[in-house]
């Protein structure tokens, strides 16, 4: 019975979940106390559950790989899916606060793994409030890339502290990123674009990438082309605003 | 969210405004020249050097505290005292003259405060989890505020900060919050520009962290961090790596769980702890427990172990806040509350002291009788407000304290349907038109 019900939410030909069964409110309050489980500290995060291919439950000599890419607010997971094949040996995770959307991404990854044996084993998703719990998932300097793509703009000044890029939260992102690690941000809202660029510019632990470096980075092109939001903006002929910065050692 | 706890919609729908009470606090001057007790908006100082009550003088046009004080702290050399609380004012006092040398206004209620080891910076944390800093200037031995406007230094994202502490070397500032997080941040050369470099997080507590202190030995100056929590454990941390060195289940080890009435399967939250200076002992106060639990730390073995329980008999005294000077062998304890619902007396404060930690191997620490306390009756008159207290008041106070503490620190859990009701009746929706 239950099996049948869950099956109908999947597309018959591709085996992928159908979006219309995973509609959710566009906004979620990042300030509210959470009611979902989170690991108490990074080593409590169950890698074998998320990446069974790399961490088989039975095997003694499990891999000592760690997650290196984090897509904060991954939405429906478009970027993760593209990155997965581009960096097949890098573990990456999407973090999303809306539970229905997280469910969709989970199903999408499982579907992709089933139809493409051996592929998409390096991506997973978790429902969490990354504004509060980044240090519960990642150790100091563990990440090499962080993505903040098309975040909630929170226009009102009263709500600016709900923005996912803010001067104080950048301290935590700088903690999770290794020196040399890169933070990618993009939005279609000009005001927010300037805000994110301004926050990163003013932070002593980040420096901007040069034009040549941006051109050479294959990931930069994916920011707008691989994400669902980016595709939507392109369809409507909108503009996007990008800020890509590198984590550096602060000068004393 | 921090402020969500303050909305008047209770499970039963009744207003909780009048139940807002604050536990009493105590702070002891590092060289035991004075003792300060805060209860409600009242700040009571007894000068032990002069042997008399000290009266606070504020010559600025700013008022005294108007609402519950939530934090009082001396600086390391005892020259300064900072007090702050629900009235969003941070007041800095000179302990020589008891003059207020500066008042800083905060946008939110203040939950914790600390003075940097060099005495140049006062840090305080607000209810949104932001730690602010103001700069002090020293000229000919007198301190003054450089700027009355505080600068934001660091932030715990929307979690109430329960404790702020500088490491013994002054190189790090440690902040603990209601989300069981302890953050160790590098104290920058120019703190007014923000403290951006997170050295590590100390993660492992499963409930709110209520108190922090450092334990060090002569050959290990930087010392280890000790934290107490609502999960009824005391933990020892190495802040250089953020690693958990040892955990002591104080509740279980002391056999407390059986002696305390277990009504709502309440765990024994650690309410305060205090490292006995120049020793390896840690005094721990536990919610509703009539006494002190002593732990001892083995710095070289990196462990904490249970030593003994010192019960307080004769009266219903369960300390809520502890204080100790670095010079005297005396642990000061306070139990008290700012408001007592349904009783004639408006507040209760009881101050007691325990001595004999230096010779712990030879016997139990001893509770001092009222007349044996430094300052004697005069001190108690000032700090407690009255010398004798009826037993019924104690009982009422300990009940009220329990409620106040859990309201302060324990997150509310709502059923799913209750959450929906709260969402529908949110008051911030009014602004959306």
Automatic annotation (TrEMBL), chain A:
Enzyme Commission number: 2.1.1.33
One Gene Ontology term, aspect cellular component: tRNA methyltransferase complex
Involved pathway(s): tRNA modification; N(7)-methylguanine-tRNA biosynthesis
Top EC class of this enzyme: transferase
Pfam families attached to this UniProt entry: Methyltransf_4 (PF02390)
Keyword Lipid biosynthesis belongs to the record: no
Superkingdom as given in the UniProt entry: Eukaryota
Location in or out of the cell: Nucleus
UniProt-annotated binding residues for S-adenosyl-L-methionine: 73, 96-97, 129-130, 149, 227-229
Active-site annotation: 152
GO molecular function, one term: tRNA binding
Keywords assigned: Methyltransferase, Nucleus, RNA-binding, S-adenosyl-L-methionine, Transferase, tRNA processing, tRNA-binding
Catalytic reaction list: guanosine(46) in tRNA + S-adenosyl-L-methionine = N(7)-methylguanosine(46) in tRNA + S-adenosyl-L-homocysteine
Biological role: Catalyzes the formation of N(7)-methylguanine at position 46 (m7G46) in tRNA.
HAMAP family: tRNA_methyltr_TrmB_euk (MF_03055)
Similarity field: Belongs to the class I-like SAM-binding methyltransferase superfamily. TrmB family.
PANTHER family per record: 3-DEOXY-D-MANNO-OCTULOSONIC-ACID TRANSFERASE/TRNA GUANINE-N 7 - -METHYLTRANSFERASE, TRNA (GUANINE-N(7)-)-METHYLTRANSFERASE
Protein name per Swiss-Prot or TrEMBL: tRNA (guanine-N(7)-)-methyltransferase
High-level lineage: Eukaryota, Viridiplantae, Streptophyta, Embryophyta, Tracheophyta
Automatic annotation (TrEMBL), chain B:
Pathway info: tRNA modification; N(7)-methylguanine-tRNA biosynthesis
One Gene Ontology biological process: tRNA (guanine-N7)-methylation
One CC-aspect GO term: cytosol
Primary location class: nucleus
InterPro entries: Trm82, WD40/YVTN_repeat-like_dom_sf, WD40_repeat_CS, WD40_repeat_dom_sf, WD40_rpt
Family annotation (Gene3D superfamilies): YVTN repeat-like/Quinoprotein amine dehydrogenase
Xref: SUPFAM superfamilies: WD40 repeat-like (SSF50978)
UniProt-recorded name of the protein: tRNA (guanine-N(7)-)-methyltransferase non-catalytic subunit
Organism the protein comes from: Punica granatum (Pomegranate)
Organism taxonomic ancestry: Eukaryota, Viridiplantae, Streptophyta, Embryophyta, Tracheophyta
Gene that encodes it: LOC116189472
